[in-house]
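ESCALATION

Customer reports they have been waiting on this structure for their group meeting. Please prioritize. Original submission:
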Amino acid sequence: MISSEYYHRVIYADTDAMGVMYYANYLKVYEAARGDLMRKIGFSFSDMGAKGIICPAINVNIEYHKFAKFDQEVKIISTIKELPIVKLEFEQAMYDAKNVLINKAIVRLGFVDEQRAKAVRCPAWILKLFSDKF
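Update from on-call: job pushed to the front of the queue and completed.
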């Protein structure tokens, strides 16, 4: 299992007219947290793209419990529980300063050969990065 913490302060542009984070913007914050976790283990989505493999989202499930509000700092915990054989699955949860759950998400990414636009298994060099961490 690989896990990482990421912090985000809700900026005005994240919010809607009610001063709470707009529902779709949670996904942007989760994306930043996933990228941060991957960089911490020595992986870069841009390096992968340069090698012709992209990782689009193939499924997202998000469950809202509370609202994040303007200027609030939130903590995101991102976890990978399985080696990415055909998909890369993240369990993510966002908490307020009192460690109360705001929302949680499961995000599944696929591996695609960009040139052929075809789904592929996880490349061996990526799998090795993960295998070394489990």
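Sent to customer with the following note: Residues 2-131 form a domain with the Thiol Ester Dehydrase; Chain A fold (CATH 3.10.129.10).
Escalation resolved.
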